[in-house]
Amino acid sequence: MAKKDIELAIEARNLSIYYGDFRAVTEVNLKVVQNKITAIIGPSGCGKSTMLRAFNRMNELVPTAWAEGEVLYHGKNIYDPDVDPVEVRRRVGMVFQKPNPFPKSIYDNVAWGARVNGYKGNMDDLVEQSLKGAAIWDEVKDKLDQNGLSLSGGQQQRLCIARTIAIKPDIILMDEPCSALDPIATLHIEELMRELSEDYTIIIVTHNMQQAARVSDYTAFFNLGEGRTGILDEFGETDKIFTNPDHQTTEDYITGRFG
């Protein structure tokens, strides 16, 4: 694909995130390509999750957090004073590290966000399509009234993905979505990510190098800079990052020499 044909889903420009006086990530410039999977990798404490949450203003749920710079979504800085963070989070959904279904029925888990957002369409159809989109419909279609917490860990995570896509986001953020899952459940989620990327842009934080190499189209390698602040060390197509990175630090991390 020629560079001029690449469409961006969201872009960070000179973005720094602070917790009080501590600068967690420093002057990040990162272009996220639409309908592709971008992996964020790097050693512990380098600001990967902070960076991910910057894309839907989730960091603001921490009282001391604040941002400098811009995150452009359809040309608009989501940190502008006139932007509603709730609307940002509707368009940029989030799947967390540990499956966190509500203590409600499977049906109500999926329908909840749509109801809150005033969905006027056929809720049964929305629930079914969302569960199909998360590749779990066939497993739960006969027990929609059962508690979501009764499902296995991998099923719970797919239920959470169904809950996320039910509100029709453009972008799905995933913060180590497989870290609490067994290898078979992990494989299901990875296959699902590839399918979802046909309709959604996905940004995933992962500690698993093999997973990043398997599922992502682009990889952003974060490292620790001076003062233990997170810096974007290298970004590019995943194949290049994993086979011919520009920086020695990237190669050292990917090959397990540090981190």
Give an overview in words.
The chain is an alpha/beta fold and 259 residues long. The chain has a single domain, classed as P-loop containing nucleotide triphosphate hydrolases (Rossmann fold), CATH 3.40.50.300. It is 34% helix and 27% strand. It has ten helices and ten strands. Strand 7 (171-175), helix 7 (183-196) and strand 8 form a beta-alpha-beta unit. Helix 6 (153-165) packs parallel to helix 7 (183-196). The longest helix has 14 residues, at 183-196.
Roughly what fraction of the amino acids lie in strands? 25-35%
The string of secondary-structure elements, in order, is EEEHEEHEHHHHEHEHEEHH
**Terminal-residue CA separation:** 33 Å
Poorly predicted runs: none
Considering DSSP H and I runs of 4 or more, what fraction of the residues is helical? 25-40%
Number of domains: 1
- Which value, in Å, is the CA radius of gyration? 18 Å
CATH architecture: 3-Layer(aba) Sandwich
Say which CATH homologous superfamily is assigned. Answer: P-loop containing nucleotide triphosphate hydrolases
Number of discrete helical segments? 10
> Regarding CATH, which class?
Alpha Beta
Q: Main sheet, how many strands, which sense, barrel?
A: 6 strands, mixed
Mean pLDDT: 94
CATH level 3 topology = Rossmann fold
Strand order of the largest sheet: 6-7-8-3-9-10
**Overall shape:** globular
Structural class: alpha/beta
Quickly list its features.
259 residues; alpha/beta; Rossmann fold; 6-stranded mixed beta sheet; 10 helices; 10 strands; 34% helix; 27% strand; globular
